[in-house]
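Much of our argument rests on the idea that a fold can be written as discrete symbols. The amino acid sequence and the backbone structure tokens for this protein are reproduced below:

___
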Amino acid sequence: MIKPIHPLKISASTLVNALGIGKKYTTNAMLGGYSGLCRSKFPDMNFDTFLGLVNEVKGVELEDELVKFTCRNNKLAKLALDTDNFREDVKDAIVKYGKNRIGVFLGTSTSGIAETESAYMNRDGESGRLPSMDMLYTDNTSSIQRYVCRSLGLSGVSMTISTACSSSAKVFASAYRSIESGFCDAAIVGGVDSLCLTTLYGFNSLQLISEDICRPWDKKRNGINIGEAAGFMLLEKSNECKGVYLTGYGESSDAYHISSPHPEGNGGRMAMESALSTAGLKASDIDYVNLHGTATPSNDHSESRGLQSVFGNKIMCSSTKGMTGHTLGAAGINEAIICMLSLENSIIPANVNLSSVDDQLPVQVTTKSIQKSLSHVMSNSFGFGGSNCSLIFSC
């Protein structure tokens, strides 16, 4: 029997995605049931789809002393750090704990790879030489972690996790273990993923990109829309009764296939069951599940069967990827904050864009936003290679 964890309070948070700059825009979309996805093209992209673009990132400039970290991913991170009063809350935490006792645990899949793509496209035609660029400060997956630590003035334990779509969900587990082991007293968890040609063409080559707006759980679903997002949370121990807490996490690695989930959702089931165990909860205690719900035929089929094996046929659930797109390495934090907003605002968000119910899926989703008091919610993030993570938040 897994021993329940000690809850960690979410003391501060910030979110940027296609719905807007700041949590209030995501809250409004949850209440109104609308999407931030638009039919658009990324530079040098030659196929049609809907994207979850954060257009404001174009005008962001990094701090003068950190200009070497300039890339779309780090600019997106700065946009979030400057939003929702997050920097000020971190400064208060530094006074409380010290800059070397706050850990930083971040997830990404793209990092600053768009800078490398640009360099190769603009290489010298005769010699093939690339223009001057520094991969260590941009493309490298540790770039986001190093930038955020320096931008916030933190010098404690830190790491980057890159496990595809579960990256910024698994950071919660790593942060919890680090706090419990005494490596830090509080932790910033989060994730940042920005659009780039590698992911756009990569998913398109796998025939997973939809030309239409994505429709999770729909009978006619045919693929994902890729989005970008940046989000951060400050976690710390607290004896207060009020607020939203991380109360459980579960991880699994089923390694069924490099890009396809187990058809019966075995990996997802293991993660969900583990999360319930660490939270000390029963399946019947969960009021809402934010689905991984990518809108590919195989993913929704697999997750629905995994859900059924844990919760039976009746569990309130929905995918919010129809609002923001699949933000890949940032999906975990994007949807963790959506779960926090669900608890704070007593709302189960609608599964937007659904037009025809797939009666072959044993678990059905909510089609309209529902106002309801919630106590415990779960967020699922399932990545390529069977790297799965489920989180539970409570209030």
In short: The chain has a mean pLDDT of 94. The longest helix spans residues 167-181. The chain has one domain: 8-394.
